[in-house]
Amino acid sequence: MVKLITIFLAALLVVGSQSLNIGKVGGYTDHPELIENSNIKALVKYAAEYLTSTDNLILDEIKITRVQTQLVNGINYKLEFTAQSVNGHNKLTTCEAVIYERFDSTRKITSAQCN
Length: 115
Known about the structure:
Elements: H1 2-20, E1 29-30, H2 38-55, E2 59-72, E3 74-85, E4 91-101, E5 107-114
Antiparallel strand pairs: 1-2, 2-3, 3-4, 4-5
């Protein structure tokens, strides 16, 4: 019974990923069409808030430059963005964040950094 449920869920995941056009299982896929997506903007804001709390880095004028997705047991979003570092003399900085989002919309930042 467990095997049958596992096979069904795996098939559902593959079919669902194709209908959502999220990408293939395994590697990252570029999605330039998602740069203006409201969910992606919310994820970048979440990453910026994380960087404020962990690195004391206050970011303003955020611009998303690249969106990639990886289908796992949920979706990894690899987001690249530029921003002005308010506490760094308004210096332009480039950031990358990887955010894991489960299918129940639970989010977790797996990495985030700025140069």
